[in-house]
Amino acid sequence: MAGRSLNKAQLIGNVGKDPELRKTPQGNSVCTLRVATTEFYRGRNGERKEITDWHSVVLWDRLAEIAVQKIRKSDKIYVEGKLRTRSFEKDGVTKFVTEIIAQNIIILSRKQPRTDSTTDTSSEDSFNINYPSDYNPTESSNQ
Amino acid sequence: MPFSMNKVIIIGNLGADPEFRTTPQGVNVCRFRVATTERYRDRSGNWQDDTEWHNVVVFGPLAETASRMLKRGSKVCVEGRNKTRHYEKNGETHYITEVIARSIVYLDPKSERQTTESASVVNDYVDTTSYYLSDIQDVDSEPSNPIDAENLEEDDLPF
Question: With an 8 Å Cβ cutoff, is B71 touching chain A?
């Protein structure tokens, strides 16, 4: 029962630390952003509460390469992508992790002005990737 | 001024009948798993299906309706927020990410719905912001039907 389906996640939040670029054995670039979202709500007694959720956002290839140049800790970004759950073994125990595979990122505000002249100075703060239809790094390569 | 957004929208089919329960605090909770399938052509030109399973949790007024309206195979649209929590099992810390539903649209044709009682309900919305897992003490410590490890791959620790 394949049919039509939709798998979309959208976040606006703050980046927890500077992104680091990694390479898969197959040569794909990848980086993981930790993004915090905060929601405010009223508790049972009417008091104001807030709760912060942390999300793992995975960027592949060109998106990863642009992100490590442009995104820094505490920047506020918009992320659009899809949810993906994968498993891994640690000390003989199978664990699962759900991540957002980014397809579109917009930098909304920067915590600090960039002073490093070697980074990309273009004012374009929105970048997205239209992956080819057979592009599936989770199948063809491993981080 | 801090602002943020945490939004997930999935459209897919239930893998099993939903589970419904009421916590000792009187909060209704409905859980089910939804499969979304992405179809693409591989390098040889053959169609491949990439299926993703999502854990959906519905709290409060939405939960009862969801448990009545949905069954294995039902098509549904869930909008909500992404939430990761952890639990201990055999001394190990495990993480699980769930979609906490804010609104649900039931996509099955009327004739295929399980009950006529609420057949007029097409979509359902409630502000579930205040339903946090900390408020619901005895929430399941682990998923009853863990995600199939097939086709998933090993990786380093993300946390």
Answer: no
